[in-house]
Amino acid sequence: MSEQNYQKLVQRQRDYFNTGATRSVQFRLDALKKLKAAVIAYQTKGEVALQKDLAKSEFETYLGEWGVVLSEINTHIKQLKKWTRRKRVKTPLFLRPSYSRIVYEPYGVSLILAPWNYPFQLAILPLIGAISAGNTAIIKPSELAPHTAKLLVDLVSETFDEAYVAIVEGGIAETTDLLKQRFDFIFFTGSTNVGRVIARAAAEHLTPVVLELGGKSPVILDKDIAMKVAVRRLAMAKISNCGQVCVAPDYVVVPQESKAEFIEVFKTVVREFFPTGSLDEASTYQTMTRIINQKNFKRLQSLLVGENILWGGKVFEAELKFQPALIDSGDVADYFSNKRQKTAILQEEIFGPFLPVLTYQNISDVIQYVNAGEKPLALYLFSDNATVRNKVLQNISFGGGCINDSMVHIANDYLPFGGVGESGQGAYHGETSFLTFSHAKSLLYSTTLFDLAVKYMPYTAKKLKFLKKLFK
Ligand code: NAD
């Protein structure tokens, strides 16, 4: 599509928004129900598309794409009437007898930019928020998952008039042209570097923007934990979608004395996840999602160069897969004394099934290590010790996370999901999606029956004295 066509599309949506049609709660509920029916109708085609794009198994496609989306739509359908109610808030004494309310209004025309790793979920989940809040939406799916992008085009264009919800395909050039248009809200999911490009484009029109980005999310293991359960939970999160998950554990930090046990248990767990065949052969990893493309495969392969691989890391180039790998990255304290320099695998978001293993002696060192990097999107702490929990939670800033689990916090739609600092800004899921896509309009309702003279000119010493008493 040309820049001119984008301009026309945005104008069409703005005209439609201005008719007020999307504001009625019933209209939004009907749209959510239509979307739900379409999502269900496209489930089988989705399994095929995601198999082609990422070799995603039926299980992972259901859990991470369709299941998540259906659960979110159901929540919105159930709760929308409650969320859209104007909210009563207190009014200070000096403003009485007025009363105050917050009214949630849609922004207008929203733009949703999606990545490739959960190409269905991450295009539709924000759309649910946009619809609930009464906006129109233009979705730009990732060009790197073309089969899912095509499915999204069919689903959206069959379900909605493009004056209300439209979808446009394209890569960097098309997105750049799209971003020149004036949107009322932008919701971006993707990498931190592209997030900066989006924020710059949004600034041009002072458009509010949510950035759902990535980063390096640590897993911290305390002493005396239930190792098998901890490793199973973190390994599942690291291996599902072949590690291509924004909230996947990026690296693990274990007590020095637990390192050997951790490695042994990790190997056992991988064996349990893939029970038949040799762990050195690609065929064993049939149910594992593959790396999205050759470029990312090569990037991941280069991350292993020069690393001390403790276990795994076999390269299956024809399948675009890797055997999960544990990397020996030394002790966190080594990096403060400059005894070791961080290699690429400790610097960039891995986004693959490799897990650097770092050790520590003192939990304060772990805090120092994590805080030396950017604020993570997620953090997972396995500990039953209240002192350790408090220390970690109070001293490290991160988007969200779990105690004694990994990744599952994103499945609770009562919890806002989003990053902080370089891992993102803004949040969504459940009611937070509705609030994110809404402007909270503040209203104070007054009366003309009373009119206190004290607030008016001329200013007198007596009036000032009264005001000073009032605010004391
Ligand atoms: P990406 O930033 O390369 O692409 C995301 C979207 O931006 C795509 O639609 C793409 O077409 C577009 N895009 C890419 N380059 C652009 C440019 N220069 N100008 C304008 N648009 C551009 O991200 P990706 O590779 O698709 O996804 C992986 C990244 O996304 C990882 O960093 C991951 O952590 C992050 N991610 C975050 C979340 C989250 O919810 N926080 C979820 C999934 C992925």
List the keywords.
seven-stranded mixed beta sheet; binds nicotinamide-adenine-dinucleotide; single chain; alpha/beta; 472 residues; globular; six-stranded mixed beta sheet
Outline of the structure:
This protein has 16 helices and 18 strands. By secondary structure, the chain is an alpha/beta fold. Bound molecules: nicotinamide-adenine-dinucleotide.
Largest sheet: 7 strands, mixed
Strand order of the largest sheet: 10-13-14-9-8-15-16
Rounded mean pLDDT is 97
Counted beta strands: 18
Distance between the termini: 62 Å
List low-confidence stretches: none
Radius of gyration: 25 Å
Q: What structural class do the secondary elements suggest?
A: alpha/beta
Query: Which strand-content bin applies to the residues?
Result: 15-25%
> What's the helical proportion of residues?
40-55%
Task: Give an overview of the whole structure.
By secondary structure, the chain is of the alpha/beta class. The protein is built from 16 helices and 18 strands. β6, α8 and β7 form a beta-alpha-beta unit. The longest helix has 27 residues, at 58-84. It is globular, with a radius of gyration of 25 Å. Residues 113-117, 122, 140, 142-143, 171-172, 175-176, 189-191, 194, 197, 212-214, 246, 349, 351, 377, 419, 424 line the site of nicotinamide-adenine-dinucleotide (NAD).
